[in-house]
Design goal:
With 168 residues, the chain is an all-alpha fold. It contains four helices and no strands. The protein is elongated and about 140 Å long. 1% of the residues are buried.
């Protein structure tokens, strides 16, 4: 009799699903996008520039004036450069993410505006046709002057008939 292989080495059966040792982090893209937009908005304010300027000035002043034991970043300020580079490396993608979300919102708004304009255009064309048909219909309506002249003519005919009968 042939020896049976375990199912894991067979090619016609799927592999057992293995559990991951470390679970992949998951995040809500909308929450992250909102954070990115708030961050980008804050970075574009004068408040952020004032805070960053204050931090850099205090950093440089402390490390330039403080005694040797208290200074933590010597003259070329390598650590300050590293911190600013790290901040910039995170800020750039967050700003791009915020811009992409804004661009998507702008596209949706532009499409809604286009649809509203198309509806307004169709409404205006309909109203223009209605006004034209009303003008044509008004052309067939009897005016006050026309009615007066017809009534005068009928009155004169009646007067003629009445005077003709009285003469008989």
């Amino acid at each position: 009799m042939a020896e049976r292989r375990p199912s894991s080495s067979r090619l016609d059966t799927p592999k057992d699903s293995r559990r991951q040792l470390v679970k992949r982090p998951s995040y809500d893209s909308d929450t992250f996008g909102v954070f990115a937009e708030q961050f980008a908005r804050f970075m574009g304010t004068a408040t952020f520039l004032a805070y960053m300027t204050m931090v850099v000035v205090v950093w440089v002043a402390w490390n330039a004036v403080a005694p040797d034991g208290a200074a933590f970043d010597a003259y070329p300020f390598i650590f300050l450069t590293l911190i600013l580079s790290l901040q910039a490396s995170y800020a750039a993608p967050l700003i791009l993410l915020a811009q992409n979300r804004q661009e998507r919102r702008d596209k949706v708004i532009a499409e809604q505006d286009r649809q509203a304009n198309a509806r307004a255009h169709a409404d205006m064309e309909f109203l223009a046709r209605e006004v034209a048909s009303l003008r044509m219909a008004l052309g067939e309506v009897a005016t006050r002057d026309y009615l007066r002249s017809e009534l005068r003519q009928l009155l004169s005919e009646l007067d003629e008939r009445g005077s003709g009968r009285a003469a008989e």
